[in-house]
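Researcher: Structure prediction, please.
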Amino acid sequence: MTGTAPWPATAVVEGRSVTSIGGVGLAGLAESHGTPLWVVDEADLRMRCRAYRRAFPEVAYASKAWCTVGILRIVADEGLWVDVASGGELYTAERAGVPMERVVFHGNNKSEAELRMAAGLGVGRLVIDSFDEIGLADRVGAATGHRFRAWIRVTPGIDAHTHAFVRTGHDDSKFGFTLSLGLADRALERALASDHLAVAGVHAHIGSQIFGAAPLAANTEVLIGVLAGWRDRYGVTLDELNVGGGMAIPYTHEDRPLGPAGYGAVLSGALTAEAARLGFPVPRLFVEPGRALVGPSAATLYRVGTVKRIPGIRTYAAVDGGMSDNIRPALYGAEHEVAPAGRRSDAPLEAMTIVGKHCESGDLVREHAPLPSDLAPGDLLVVAATGAYTESMASTYNRVPRPGAVLVQDGSARWMVRPETYEDLVARDLPAGPAAADG
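Model: Predicted structure follows.
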């Protein structure tokens, strides 16, 4: 069986085991490339990019989900915009050859150096997030002779009913200008008065891993209302509307998100209907999926080191990675599907807690994962939907080197991110202290 959610499209599932992705056997991949290993299905990623482009007029990949040169080259090749939120992400986009006119620059605390970089490169859109930033962007524009094409980010007061750490649309948020307090109107006034900001539209992002379309549709309706209100009060008709991202993906076989066609139909319908009701020309609709593009396209390959049974309490299986390469279970209580990789087993299933190798009790990969009871040291496990917020949030906790990533397609695998080495871990260390002083 191929391409069964939550596994990538080309994954081959035999019984309970995932045996290959992209035509590459996982057992052989572990032998040749080592573990832990991020495995990216190129065909799956391109398929998702194309599905979003069919569903929406404009799509910007939220690169915070996974920002490497290889990933950005693929999404740019598929015609997507790229949204960045720091100078480092912007630098990566430049190195990847992303056309700068298709770059959106986000961030709630952009530095002067970052804004100068954005001006010098000619980024396509600057998302204005605070009054301080309006002043800073104006000063940078004056110093560089650049005029930023900008969106005003607003907080629309919509609760997306997701984890508190990934909700961004409610009034109490570090992002954007709060609509209910009139701050968005004041921001527009300030931006319109600037000689170095050309306001093009409005932006709002309400949260992440949103399963239903209703919150996103409500956000769309609020934003078209903002544009209509600005037309009536300030005499400006802005023609770009960005509803952000947050579309959900399946992390386990029980998850049932809508998918791009479903989200697209609901949001486009809401936009058209509300624009007609308000007598406002339908603006250009942007979305910013990150997780929804790259999340399902990757899986993580681990090798089991120990299996510890505590009779009557729990069975722990420890793998050679953990919270350093996937912080989501510890940070958000996230759950990922886990399966044996490369070997089939008909042994009875046993609920096991899969843990990492770090010195933290919260170093979980998955609790109560149903796995074959004959799981043993040396066996391989594969974890689904690990393309988003794994590599990008990875750490070297306990001085565990970060994994590498391979791109698999049509039976071949090539490195996309090389594995970190022990030498890499100490490369930034300086010989300070008594020993250095004595020398």
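Model: The chain has a mean pLDDT of 94.
Researcher: Thanks, that helps.
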